[in-house]
């Protein structure tokens, strides 16, 4: 009986495995940027940061409003009892004596002037004319708002990068699963061939056992890759705010948009200009500078102008002559408070120096982060051609060994070794490819490249 020739099945499996089961294309609504926007909309931590930013903006509006006039209505209606002060008891006897001296009744002797009066209603318009504390307060609030805006943007950029990396981990696990599926075709055919040879007295039992062991190893690795894909999909669904077991469509490789497309100097310049951590640090410096101004304002006077109009008495009367008007200028100037202002000024100055130190440290970290990310992406890109050449060579070696094995010129061990080398080369190609894409996603975050936060700026 002739030697079984598994060439047709082996070469068909070769073509399937060499394709690495690339996704055919992306759904119109399922792009990587769309996933990022979905994750940003669903993330609760980012939602909390945005709410805190709203609070900071409202605080700035409140600080600005302090410069404007205030209009206040005050009304009082009192019920009196007990030993209240009545100035009529003092004035009435004096008026009676005057009437006796003048021989007339020009002076009333039945006055009732009780204090406080039964009612008092007034409207006050007040306007700060000079108060350095208001300027300092607005500077502090503006700095805190800018710092929170930077913190919100940094959180959004981090979430975007985590979403991209999460999808890449899912896609890599899918590729590994598909690779092992294709490899199973090869090892299944090898087991079939060895069992046929054993039945025809052309092979020994250990060769069959070796082929079966090789298949079990591939099956075990395939199961592990499938578990990784499922776990990555579930984690990504949680980030997207979807049901944990929701399906996730693969995205075509050419639609990922993750490439090293800028030189190092451009990446560094983008990081210096756009990284939100620097906005946050500058906001902290501005707030600390405002605290210094607030401490210095304690040495200066404040001046407020106020105008009061109202009525008061035993009953409400709004006729002409029954109201009163008061215009006031109120000056306040604390000349000595036991050294409190100097202590506050020294503390604020130390806070400003600390904020500037933190800003310098943030700038250094951002530049190092962007530089490291760019270098990692560059190194990962350089590894791509070698990984691809290794895969092509391993595939060609497998094809040659498979042909030799089909005519009995190569042993089973040579065939299995060629298959293992091909599988390892394919695994290396997958890991190298997705490592490069993850490095590019990290570079988008570290360098704050324009495409690194698609759709995230809205709402900040």
What report would you give on this structure?
This protein has ten helices and six strands, in the order αααββαββααααββαα. The chain has 460 residues and is an alpha+beta fold. It has two domains: 345 residues, Outer membrane efflux proteins (OEP), CATH 1.20.1600.10; 33 residues, no CATH class. Helix 3 packs antiparallel against helix 5 and helix 5 packs antiparallel against helix 10. It is elongated and about 155 Å long. Keywords: Cell outer membrane, Coiled coil, Membrane, Signal, Transmembrane, Transmembrane beta strand, Transport. It is found in: Cell outer membrane. Belongs to the outer membrane factor (OMF) (TC 1.B.17) family. GO terms for molecular function: efflux transmembrane transporter activity; porin activity.
Annotation keywords:
two-stranded antiparallel ribbon, 4-stranded antiparallel beta sheet, disordered C terminus, 2 domains, 460 residues, 10 helices, Outer membrane efflux proteins (OEP), disordered N terminus, elongated, alpha+beta, 6 strands, single chain
DSSP strand content: 5-15%
Helix and strand composition category: alpha+beta
Summarize model confidence as the mean pLDDT: 86
What distance separates the N and C termini? 77 Å
In terms of per-residue confidence, which ranges show pLDDT below 50 for 5 or more consecutive residues?
A: 1-9, 19-29, 454-460
List the helices and strands and how they pair.
Elements (H helix, E strand, L loop, with lengths): L6 H12 L13 H11 L1 H22 L4 E8 L7 E2 L1 H15 L11 E2 L3 E12 L1 H68 L5 H36 L23 H11 L1 H22 L4 E12 L9 E10 L7 H67 L5 H35 L14
Antiparallel strand pairs: 1-4, 2-3, 4-5, 5-6
Main location: membrane
Protein name: TolC family protein
GO molecular function: efflux transmembrane transporter activity; porin activity
